[in-house]
Write a structure and sequence with these properties.
The chain has 482 residues and is mainly beta. 9% of the residues lie in helices and 30% in strands. The chain is built from 6 helices and 32 strands. The strands form 9 sheets. Strands 2, 3, 9, 10, 15, 27, 28, 29, 31 and 32 form a 10-stranded mixed β-sheet that branches. Strands 1, 4, 13, 14, 16, 22, 23 and 30 form an 8-stranded antiparallel β-sheet that branches. Strands 5-8 form a two-stranded antiparallel sheet. It is globular. InterPro entries: ConA-like_dom_sf (IPR013320), Glyco_hydro_7 (IPR001722), Glyco_hydro_7_sf (IPR037019).
Length: 482
């Protein structure tokens, strides 16, 4: 996968763009159940790198030294790509016009991803980007006993759309060291993988995915090949202005593993891969609180708010994933479960996950793939921050914001996930009716528990400030058309 003809910028780094802050506490008190490894600092936050890179799947792929497409629409050029190895040697990933082609803009510490961008080369749908530590390395996060916080504006993101922020156990260099035929690396956004073992990735493990490629019947830019890219995934945020979920997805192996055929899971063998495709999700609406998240509700999605996620570990193993929000200076504790037969959990724990699977009658793929233990291993190894906006050609995003499966009784616990109609989310509809939709992520920070946010308790007296931990309680692969 050589790199040639990169005539446009490869890394997005406006001079004023400072998105990431690392934070620490000056006088830490030990949160339950165990204290985090506090940084030796006087407290506060310091600015880290502020650059992102576009995923390789969106980039123009052309012949080395020329401008003949290796991939056009949703098909490969069989002359340039007669097999996976030859294709990788013949083809190059190009640079990217982040704003003009992909609708990616920045202002201060805010990053905005536009859904549909029309340009002279056609129309781009969605995007996926990664945070960089340098021009050639992704920023690696190790968040056990740490918290991760960001501000988000989903007011312009309706049914059928997903502004996702999550962590993937990708290689820091995009796979260059592991796969010598990959000469593009993190600088060109290579190495993506997730718990769905996606088979629509164009290049996996240093080779093309052109063998056995079948163009999509409902996506003019996508298809599936023989191979998929599996790895651990921690979904911190999958959301629009109707519904939101956070979800760990463990796998039985570490790092990117290339799967083949039905061993990638998918429609005909959903639980046959090494990864958990379902995860253990906490969606407030699905868990029984229908007045917590949405426009005009407790977390008001008509305006910006702060999302705080705390990864509590004991003895090096993840034991709890906590969630809280801050909006208009008020700290909002996470909603509580209101499902018959379940305790009023307000965070993700092994007990919550087991109880949820039983209450909803779902396959416990989460437990079968190692649950919190395997998620812990991935977080200890380090994971890459992913930010994206996308629509869903497989299930119309109904699993996030509507009743799903659509054939199930919506009165059954776990079926309703939001208020969107079961007829919503069809990609051709949202792309034509809501092209100017967007998501804005800003003020991203991470560090000691309680160090990344401030605000008064929603139930406390005016002026009371808290920075301590609260009480314990399709993946997408879309393409731009160049």
């Amino acid at each position: 996968m050589l790199v040639a003809g990169a005539t446009t910028p490869d890394i997005f780094r406006p001079s004023l763009y400072k998105m990431l802050f690392q934070c620490s506490r000056s006088s830490p008190s030990s949160p339950s159940p165990s204290p985090p490894p506090y940084l030796p600092s006087s407290g506060g936050c310091v600015t880290q790198a502020g650059r992102i890179v576009l995923d390789a799947n969106w980039r123009w792929v052309h012949n080395v030294g020329g401008y003949t497409n290796c991939y056009t629409g949703n098909t490969w050029d069989t002359t340039l790509c007669p097999d996976t190895k030859t294709c990788a040697a013949n083809c190059a990933l190009d640079g990217a016009d982040y704003t003009g082609t992909y609708g990616i803009t920045a202002s201060g510490n805010a990053l905005t991803l536009k859904f549909v961008t029309n340009n002279s080369n056609g129309k781009n749908i969605g995007s996926r980007v990664y945070l960089m530590a340098s021009d050639t390395q992704y920023q690696m996060f190790k968040l056990l006993n740490q918290e991760f916080t960001f501000d988000v504006d989903v007011s312009n993101l309706g049914c059928g759309l997903n502004g996702a922020l999550y962590f993937s156990e990708m290689d820091a260099d995009g796979g260059m060291a592991k796969y010598p035929t990959n000469k593009a690396g993190a600088k060109y956004g290579t190495g993506y993988c997730d718990s769905q073992c996606p088979r629509d990735i164009k290049f996996i493990a240093g080779e093309s995915n052109s063998d056995g490629w079948v163009p999509s019947s409902n996506d003019a830019n996508a298809g599936t090949g023989n191979y998929g890219a599996c790895c651990n995934e921690m979904d911190v945020w999958e959301a629009n202005n109707v519904a939101a979920a956070y979800t760990p997805h463990p796998c039985t192996q570490s790092g990117l593993v290339r799967c083949s055929g039905t061993s990638c899971g998918g429609t005909n063998n959903r639980y046959g891969s090494e990864c958990d495709p379902d995860g253990c999700d906490f969606n407030s609406y699905r868990m029984g609180d229908t007045t917590f998240y949405g426009k005009g509700l407790t977390v008001d999605t008509s305006q910006k708010f702060t999302v705080v996620t705390q990864f509590i570990a004991s003895g090096g193993t993840l034991s709890e994933i906590r969630r809280l929000y801050v909006q208009n200076g008020k700290v909002i504790q996470n909603s509580k479960v209101n499902i018959p037969g379940m305790t009023a959990y307000d965070s993700i724990t092994s007990a919550f996950c087991s109880a949820q699977k039983t209450a909803f009658g779902d396959t416990d793929s989460f437990g079968n793939k190692g649950g919190m233990s395997n998620m812990s291993k991935a977080m200890a190894n380090g994971m890459v921050l992913v930010m994206s906006v996308w629509d869903d050609h497989a299930a119309n995003m109904l699993w996030l914001d509507s009743s799903y499966p659509t054939t199930a009784d919506p009165s059954k616990p776990g079926v309703k996930r939001g208020t969107c109609a079961t007829t919503s989310g069809v990609p051709t509809d949202v792309e034509s009716q809501a092209p100017n939709s967007s998501v804005t992520y800003s003020n991203v920070r991470f560090g000691d528990i309680g160090s990344t946010y401030t605000g008064s308790s929603s139930g406390g007296s005016s002026g009371t400030t808290t920075t301590t931990a609260p009480p314990s309680g399709a993946t997408q692969v879309k393409y731009g058309q160049w």
